[in-house]
Please model this.
Amino acid sequence: MNLILFFNGWGMDKNCISEIKIPINFCLQVINFPYDYDVKNLKKYEKVYFTGWSFGAWYLSKFIIENEIKSQNVIGINEHGEIIGEYGIKEKMIDFTIKNLTEKSILKFYKNMGMTDEPKISQEKIFSIKNELIYFRKNYMPLKNVFQKIIIGKKDKIIPFKNQKKYCCENNIKCIEKDFYHFPFENIKDWNEIIGERE
Model:
């Protein structure tokens, strides 16, 4: 059995990828904040594909580096290990988001991500994702590249396309350009589109 280990984005849960078909002889494990995963579990699988989307790509980078994992199957989706700065989002935007986080601003963020479904957001949810973002902000540091391939969306309004492409070019990473927004999963039907060669 093979494994797709997916590090999810900020404030998301497994429902955001629930419609994507899992290939035969594969299982999927979704890792959400606080991104805890016992590296010993990887020994159970013949092959592991490490994937991270958005802020999850940074946490995946951290996981790979801290556990000294050697793999040629590390794939980023609309992000990488240097989220803040010239290759990602401006520092002041994260600070602004933390300061002004409300139900209205979250729904606007989801819309800018390209999500067509509008989820219900409770006060508990707002509190949770705000704390998640504060934790990220306090613990962030740029990380060295661990990715062999990064899929980037030409319509990304969250992490500028040009910044992501620049990162790929300067780090000699295979860059797959897609006609996606930051949230790509309404356009992806099968995990083979991410881990496979159907590009």
User: Anything to note?
Assistant: The beta strands are 2-7, 26-31, 48-53, 74-77, 149-153, 174-178. The chain has one domain: 2-88+141-195. The chain has a mean pLDDT of 95.
